[in-house]
Sequence to fold (366 residues):
Amino acid sequence: MNNSKPDAKQYAVIRRKFWVAETVGQFIFLILLCFLPAARHWAFWVEASISHPAAQVAVYAAPLWLIWTALSLPLDWVRGYRLEHRFGLSNQSAQSWVTDYLKGFFLSAAFGLIMLESLVGLLRWKPDSWWIWAAGAWLLWAVVLSRILPTLLIPIFYKQTPLQGPLCERLEKMLKQCGTRVNGFFEINLSRTTKKANACLCGMGKSRRVLISDTLLAAYPPEEIETVLAHEVGHQKLGHIRLLTLLSTAASAASFFLINLLLHRLMVQQSIPRLDHLAILPWLALGLTVADFMLMPFLHGISRRFETDADRFALTQTKNPDAFISTMKRLGEQNLAELQPPAWVEWLLYDHPSLARRIKMAENSK
Fold:
């Protein structure tokens, strides 16, 4: 089966090369922090020079974060700006890209510092059982992020406008039939940055809402937009978000437990006086990165299964496989998605089934 667009395969191959470069670079950076004498001296100097524990963490992490940001900036620029313009997917000016990059930088720094301070606090408070508390904190963090994502985080980058009219009424009717309630339908100006199209049902409780990109609204007929939303509703009705969150928490607990065993051994081998000592943090970060890489195929496999179930839900709900097929093809062309990636790529990197699999399933449902 050929790609739906000639450039899709080339685009996908280049993006995979960027992913490999970033992953390898991250591992090299963390390994250097673990073994370079200068990195160890920095940790011990901060511990000896600053008395307040929270200040120690911030002072220690800040220059390392800036170094990593400086090293990865060229890759981020080429991948996020140059590549997207090369393949005709970006509407963003260089100035706009830099502005969004800075927003993301400060958000990541703030959230990263909160997580790091919390983790070091747990290492100090419960050096033997911190991993259990860390798993619970991970679950709480996932819930909080889900709650604030549509109302506080997305608006930092994209404007949301209430959606009204016949399409909104049609989508409301479909959600009512599914027994799903949301607090509004909103159009987001995704075209500010990209030509790609997307939609989602996100948030929790009072923040749950439907977000539909203006790029989707402009190019897709109502039955195809309904198909996209029916898929998103399927995730909610089938409990996928909750299950994935719980599975991720369980996987994190197992990772934290194994890393805890490793860290206690490293304390002796590396002559690190305490589990919450700053010199332990590079080893902790390396352990978490390795665990995340090893768990990725497992979690992606479960995600692909859930995506298939959501596709079946959408097909059952809309009873319109032709609309589903045309939607997948149109999204593939607009987003330059590779129709049928290599099997190993789908196994390792894809949290959705390939477009070819999704289209074939819809064709078989007729």
